[in-house]
Amino acid sequence: MSLATHHIPAGSAADGGPYTLDIGPEQAGWGYSALRVLALTPGSTHTFTSGDSEWIVLPLAGGCTVTVDGRPLALAGRKNVFAGVTDFAYVPRDAHVTLSSPTGGRFALTGARCERRLPARYGPASGVPVELRGTGHCSRQVNNFAAAGVFDCDRLIAVEVLTPGGNWSSYPPHKHDEHRPGEESELEEIYYFEISGDSGLGYQRVSPSRTGGTDVLAEVRSGDAVLIPDGWHGPSVAAPGHDMYYLNVMAGPGAEREWLIRDHPDHAWIRTTWPEQPADPRLPFYAAPGGDR
After folding, report:
1. Which residues face 108 on adjacent strands?
2. Phi, psi of 25 (to 5 degrees)
3. Which helix (H) or strand (E) holds 222?
4. What ranges do the domains of the chain cover?
5. How far apart are CA 236 and CA 220, in angstroms?
6. Which of 30, 124, 162, 171 is the most exposed place for a label (fewest CB within 10 A)?
7. pLDDT for 67-126, tens place per residue?
8. What's the whole-model pTM score?
9. Residue 28 phi, psi dihedral angles, 5° rounding
10. Coil, strand or helix at 11
11. Which InterPro entries match (predicted)?
């Protein structure tokens, strides 16, 4: 059954079991991208088969052991998404997987339908490139743990973005819904949000890039997701006093795994102002254990 809206409030796409969020291609009405958020109580385990998709298990809070076809991959994890970069585990398609956590926690499973079966692997936190993007009120931090060219997957691309309260990210608005060689790649995208502080909130905009295209203006809170099959997406606005985290999950039909975007022509000029402004001094929130790259 497909979801009837592009804004998925927290809890509205739970599976009735351990997943507090469960969005696959069938629910999203597209071909590739998937995201699950798994909550484990202390000492509990969860078993699944990866099926026709590759997955990355990414700790949001807490640590776990990911056992793939009998091979254990121990993840130290982190206290929360605002506390540090985390290690992660890559799970190939057609695998039997068990997650176990002595202390409990929450874990994102970022997924993409794929063709190749790559080996299961451990991704160390020290290998995650931490990038500062934009300046001034457009300053944000990007943790490129599974960016194209950083970590090998068949189709999956996934990164984390942290935006200080009061700043705009995913700006200028951009899109990747057409195949234009060397200029733009076709990628479906899921945004998953966590907001700091009590009653934390932010806003997400998606505007149509074609007649009848995706049109969203949503107030987002912790646990919400936004589906972006097409359209100019941005800004992602962090309310003053509330830092914003979002996890981006992308995949598409292109022969090459690449992230190529086109900026909205009305707003692309903002990039020319960035060299004149300093980066937000609140950034980075943290560096990878091996240092910024």
Report:
1. 37, 58
2. -55, -35
3. none
4. 7-271
5. 9
6. 124
7. 999 999 999 999 999 999 999 999 999 999 999 999 999 999 999 999 999 999 999 999
8. 0.96
9. -80, -20
10. coil
11. Deoxy-glucuronate_isom_IolB, KduI/IolB_isomerase, RmlC-like_jellyroll, RmlC_Cupin_sf
